[in-house]
Every structure is written in structure tokens, then in C-alpha cells.
Amino acid sequence: MAATDQSLTGIEHALYGAVRAARLAPSLHNAQPWRWRIAGRLAELYADTTRALPVADPLGRELRISCGAALEHARIALAAAGWHVLTTRLPDPSRPHLLACLHLAGPLDPDIGSLRLAAALPRRRTDRRPYARREVPACAHQALVDAALHHDAGLVVVHTPDQRIDLAVLANRAALIQDSEPAYRAELARWTGTRPDAAGVVPEAVPDLAARHGDVPLRDWTLSHDGTLRTPKGVYEQPMWTLLATDADGPVDQLRAGEALARVLLTATALGLAANVQSQPVEVPAVRAQLERWLLASLGHPQALIRLGWPNPATPPLPATPRRALTDILTTT
């Protein structure tokens, strides 16, 4: 059932605004695997398994992370609009696709932090291009770590040159394993380029091969990976690499990892940083296990590898990526 903004009550208007904000959340291959239902003071978030990626994400872990990011976007929008929100995760075991419920408990004065993150919602982009050769300061490190802690997640910064080399090796290994699988290449191709459903990774979001950064390798959207680490002449960026981790690895933990991921990325945007999530090393089980042993000392479960840095002033601002229409993801009762 559709409704115009003029016909909405204050509560409905707030919930519609939250779903609009949730549409802007990051997701694996920009698949946007979520649906929402609004009923009274309640917004329900569902996993849309028709938009799953069974090759890259056979267990649905990254689908739940993507939906967690959408949940955090919605909650931030509601907090900034002056609502106290109660969140229930996985409220009904008999309905596994129902991931969370947001209930508007009453008005609440928005805090500065919520307003700041809400202002970053429409500005957040996934920037895969080379960043400026300028270090991210320690104060920004701490703000990003605190953002992850807000949802009981850890954010480990890859500090030393030896760690960066090890990370580059693991990322390259993950790329080689995935790129050797025809099913993976076919799935990636389905989500690359212009699609009729306003999803996927559009050509403008893919960096030119000649402008590849010379650090940890990113996912090769051109499907031309030849097994070597590319270090293009003239690219000297030194991005900040971080690993988002949770204590446990069940569905609720993965959902909360997505919430933490969204908060980290929005905090980065508010700080003026560019960011992108490099998920390949956590998609390959053997490489994910190595990351867990190497960087987390088996004390946590890696959920996302995040690359951060200052935008290169020589590159133009990125346009917004396509988003599914509100009518495609929202029902009301």
C-alpha cells in the first residue's frame, strides 16, 4: 500500500524516512538484500533472499551484515528525527527472514552525535579509487574504534609494515581462489554494470585499471586478475586498513556487525574520510581463518576488512549509486 507524504501521520512519516535512509546502506555487490514492513509504530526488517549471493556468501553471513547496516541507517535517521527507538533482533525464531523490529517508544531530543551521523547518510560513498598519501591521525582512529564499540564490535587497525605485507598476501590469496571459480566470476558479472533493478556495482564505481592503488589488492571487477599484485607507477597511497570483528559469529552477531560497520563508515564520512569494504579475505573460509589467527589471536571473528583514507583531491566526487525504489522494498499494513 502506497502513501503520499501529505497523507502520513507523524509516526508514519518518521518510519518512512527511516526506510529511505536504510536504502542508502552499503551491501555486498550493492545487492540491497532487504525488505521492510511498517505497521503502526513498528518497522520490521526482513532479509530478501532473492538477492542473496550464494557463491560469494553461501551461509548468508554478509547478507545479514548488509541488513544490519540498513538497520543502523534507519535507527540513526529516527534518532536524529527525535524518536526513542527500541530494537529487537531476530524476534521470532519461526520467521528466520525477520531480522529485526524497530518500535517507536516516544519522542526524545536528538543528540549531536545522531545529528552528525544522519547528516553523513546521503554523503557516504564506497570509494575504491586511490586515496591521498596522507596518514589518518590517531584521533580519527579512536573515533572509528569507538563507533564499532557502540555495537560491541572491535576494530583492529593494521599498523606495522609487516602486518600490511601479510594482509596483502592474504587478500591476494583470497582473490586468486575466488577468481579461479567460474561460478564466482559469473555471479560477479551478474552484479556488475548497469542493471534494470537499480542495484549492483555500476561502471562509475569501479576504478580504472591504470589507477589501481599499490597496497592490499581490491576485488577485481574487470575479471582480469592475473595473479600478480599490481603496483601502478605514480600511485603511492598508504590507506588505513582495519578489521571489524565480533566476539561470536551467530546470526545476531553478524547483524550487529553490520550495524557497527555502518556506524564506522558514517563516522568516517563525517570525519571527511573515504572508505570501502574489501570483503574478499573474509569470504574465503581458509583466508578468514588465517585472519582470525593472525590478527585477532583467535579472540574474535573477522567480519569485514575496511580500507580508509583521505580522498585524493585530484579525483572528482563520486555520484550516488543506484538504489531500489521505496515501493520495491516497503509494504505497509
Description:
This protein is an alpha+beta fold. The chain folds into two domains: 5-125 and 320-332, NADH Oxidase (3-Layer(aba) Sandwich); 138-309, NADH Oxidase, CATH 3.40.109.10. It is 36% helix and 17% strand. The protein is built from ten helices and nine strands. It has a five-stranded mixed β-sheet with strand order 3-4-2-1-9. A four-stranded antiparallel β-sheet has the order 5-6-8-7, sandwiched between helices. Helix 2 crosses helix 3 and helix 4 (138-149) packs antiparallel against helix 7 (251-270). The chain is globular and about 55 Å long. The N and C termini lie close together (7 Å). The model is unreliable at 223-235 (pLDDT under 50).
Quickly list its features:
333 residues, alpha+beta, NADH Oxidase, 2 domains, five-stranded mixed sheet, four-stranded antiparallel sheet, 10 helices, 36% helix
Element layout with pairings:
Elements: H1 10-22, E1 34-39, E2 42-47, H2 61-80, E3 83-89, E4 98-107, H3 112-120, H4 138-149, E5 154-158, H5 161-179, H6 182-190, E6 240-246, H7 251-270, E7 274-278, H8 280-283, H9 285-295, E8 301-309, H10 326-329, E9 330-332
Parallel strand pairs: 1-9
Antiparallel strand pairs: 1-2, 2-4, 3-4, 5-6, 6-8, 7-8
Helix pairs in contact: 1-2, 2-3, 2-7, 3-7, 4-7, 5-9
Q: How many separate domains?
A: 2
Helix content: 25-40%
List the secondary-structure elements in sequence, H or E: HEEHEEHHEHHEHEHHEHE
Structural class: alpha+beta
CATH class of the largest domain: Alpha Beta
Count of individual helical segments: 10
Q: From the structure provided, what is the oligomeric state, counting identical versus distinct chains?
A: single chain
Q: What is the arithmetic mean of pLDDT?
A: 90
Q: Based on DSSP secondary structure assignment, what is the total number of beta strands?
A: 9
Distance N to C terminus: 7 Å
What is the strand arrangement across the widest sheet? 3-4-2-1-9
Shape: globular
- Largest β sheet strand count, sense and barrel closure: 5 strands, mixed
CATH architecture classification name of the largest domain: 3-Layer(aba) Sandwich
Radius of gyration: 19 Å
How much beta, percentage-wise? 15-25%
CATH fold-type name of the largest domain: NADH Oxidase
